[in-house]
Amino acid sequence: MATAAAHAHPLSSISKPVGDWVHSIAELTQPEAIHWCDGSDAEYRQLMTELQQSGELLKLNPEHFPNCFLARSHPSDVARVEHLTFVCTTNPEDAGPNNHWMAPADAHAKMRELFKGCMKGRTLYVVPYCMGPIDSPYSRCGVEITDSAYVVINMALMTRMGRAALERIGREGSFVKGLHSTGELDPNRRFIMHFPEELAIESFGSGYGGNALLGKKCHALRIASYQARNEGWLAEHMLIVGLQNPQGETHYIAAAFPSACGKTNLAMLIPPGSMPGWKVFTVGDDIAWLHPGPDGRLYAINPEAGYFGVVPGTNPKTNRNAYEMIRRDTLFTNVALTADNDPWWEGLEGGTPVIDWQGRPYDTKHGPAAHPNSRFTVSAKKNPNYSPEADSPRGVPISAIVFGGRRRGVAPLVYEARDWNHGVLVGASVASETTAAAIGEAGVLRRDPMAMKPFAGYNFGDYWNHWLAIGAKLKHPPRIYHVNWFRRDANNKFLWPGFGDNLRVLEWMLKRCAGAAEATETAIGYLPRAKDLNLAGLDIAASALEQLLSVDAREWRTEAADMGRYMDEFGARTPAALRAEVQALQQRLA
Ligand code: OXD
Ligand code: MN
Asked: Which of 192, 244, 254, 514 lies at a CB distance of 3.0 to 4.6 Å from 238, suitable for a disulfide?
């Protein structure tokens, strides 16, 4: 298709700014052909066929996994590369100590050298996309130029991609410019550059999701967070879920957790059998754009249209919805294979791997069969619990915001912030053990404010200030909570069952929002007592609950001091109101 359609396009709605930009990139990168994506089914099928012919995609067992495919990435290109990800602002202070910084002119010069002629013999795909419902005033558009057909099909599943987006861009005039090439996949020639002041992204040398699907982390979080600050909203690393109680009332929660800490599982939660009458609706599993609404509440849209979820650990017990969802129409990346050509991953509970994620005969001495950060890409519409509100242009009203991390100690199962400003401190002090979602050592505790450490496109000090300002605008702000599903006992065993049973904690939050549940006041905020939680049908020891719901003042004094030190790293940009919150916490703990 590419060669036949060289430099031709069937789309009449190309505006001059888009046309001119594509033209200038084509001059720089020298592709053999240009393909303007229209987002049609025919185009998708054609690309899938081409990718199979070139061996980049493998068809999985069509009886067991109809219309499912496997892609294998280069073994050095399996996760986000935070050390090679830069925010390029004129003033380094604007990027902040939370980002790697490069001067925009230097970054552009470096990237120009890499992009020069890099698409020779390849097809340049123009991928217009809309983040958010196509008719929502809260949505924002972008165009990704890429030389990877794998990226195009992922973008087709993950965003509203094609003709309608291009038409909206034509009407609006402005769009985020994303330029991507897989290059030679050389880790020494790999950079993910962000230019928030120019609404531009340049990514070279990686084909991995978070580095290459520019609509996701690069646009919808790093660039959007910067845009959101200028425009008075928030772009957050949050799932959005609707919870319908047995009385038939639905409330929405937005929750931020670091990568690979169970956002997709919480967004698709299955109520335990002992909680009849509850229903769960997924609005989003990774990113939320939050806007103060005309009624003084906070409204959320999910800018994405699909899931790029972590595969290992998915089974009928942990997430039956996801397990069923990814049995058809799904693109797998870096999972293993059984002798039947079925996908296999650790935690599947059945089947035997014979080929590992790198395509080698499986041998335990090579490590896990599936890569720990192997992924599924699937359209959100395939989720049996897809919320009917997920396409609503006005978004859904948020009753509670939840922050959480993966911590073996210190943080209790749940606590409620005293008010919005205290809640901003609770979010700012999220800390979590690192996971396989990014290159680097897993299991190391690091501060990850609002789960945005890898994704905030500007200085965290300014970001916290913006959070405080948003709260001041809300007549009916959501309540703010912190949860820790990952607390362990002295034998390193998880104390809380997690997954579906997390609904017990969410129920308490929603009852608190309605003024219908009790709590005890502690120095760190409001905690439920065991009797305040719905524990019907749950087999859990009283001693486990006691540990889960306890606050150790000594540990928390250390924690508070550490938070204060962390905030000092942001110097004068840390808002005084947030420092005051740390001091107040320290006084309550004294
Ligand atoms: C993701 C991540 O891919 O957070 O969602 O790493
Ligand atoms: Mn994520």
From this structure: 254
What does the pLDDT read at residue 207?
93
pLDDT for 9: 63
pLDDT in tens, 245-272: 999 999 999 999 998 898 999 999 999 9
β strands within 257-371, DSSP E: 279-284, 288-292, 298-301, 306-310, 331-333, 336-338, 343-344, 353-355
Contact 437 CB / ligand 1 (< 6 Å): yes
How much distance in Å is there from the Cα of 523 to the middle of ligand 2? Answer: 31
Does the predicted model carry a pTM greater than 0.90?
Answer: yes
Are 241 and 265 in contact, with CB atoms under 8 Å apart? no
Mutation probe of ligand 1 site: the residue of 78, 265, 286 with most atoms within 8 A of C-beta: 286
pLDDT at residue number 6: 44
Q: Which residues of the chain have pLDDT under 70?
A: 1-10
Pairwise CA distance, residues 42 & 47, whole Å: 9
Pocket test for ligand 1, best of 78, 80, 238, 450 (most atoms within 8 A of CB): 80
Ligand 1 atom at minimal distance to the Cα of residue 258: 4
For 111, the token pair is 């990237």
Helix, strand, coil distribution of the chain in percent, nearest 5: 35, 25, 45
